[in-house]
Amino acid sequence: MRGRLRRQVEQRSTICGPGRRADWPDASSPPGAPDFHLRRHPPRWRHSKFEAVVFEACNLTQADFQFAELRDVLFSHCDLIGVQFGNVAMQRVGFEDCTMVDVGGAVHMKGSCVQGPGALDLALALARDAGIKLEL
Questions:
Q1: Is the pLDDT at 26 greater than 70, yes or no?
Q2: So what's the pLDDT on residue 133?
Q3: Angle CA(5)–CA(25)–CA(80) in degrees, nearest 5?
Q4: CB count, 10 Å around CB of 44?
Q5: In what order do the strands lie in the sheet with 49-56?
Q6: Can you tell me the distance from the alpha carbon of 121 to that of 119, in angstroms, rounded to the nearest whole number?
Q7: DSSP assignment of 28-80, as one string?
């Protein structure tokens, strides 16, 4: 899936680049993305729709994607600590080498593929959401 998803979103809108926080210098929005006024942190995208979008090297700590729709979206090397994905609808969504500690609503991430160290972080979030207590 990794190669296929990468090809599908390769020519699409990139939300932010290496070393930058999810922030646009003006009030304009990139094609394929909802209204972006990202000066506020954490970003709130409840009930938003994202299609064919790449989030690359973004700081999305505590972003709120609850009830959002994500289709053909790639998160690459992003900081997703404390992100909320409750009741999100995902189709062909990839997470490559992202930090995914304390993700909320992990059980709603059906339709996604997680690669790299974020996979273990997400497994812990899934266990927590399922009511499983882990004692190491």
A1: no
A2: 87
A3: 45
A4: 16
A5: 13-14, 49-56, 69-76, 89-96, 112-115
A6: 5
A7: ---TTS----TTSSS-B-TT-EEEEEEEES-B-TT-B-TT-EEEEEEEES-B-
Q: Is the pLDDT of residue 132 over 80?
A: yes
Q: What is the pLDDT of residue 97?
A: 95
The answer to whether the CB of 15 falls within 8 A of the CB of 35 is no
pTM of model > 0.85: no
- Rounded to 5°, the CA angle 85-112-97 comes to 90
| Per-residue pLDDT tens digits for 63-115 | 999 999 999 999 999 999 999 999 999 999 999 999 999 999 999 999 899 99
Backbone angles phi, psi at 119, to 5 degrees: -65, -40
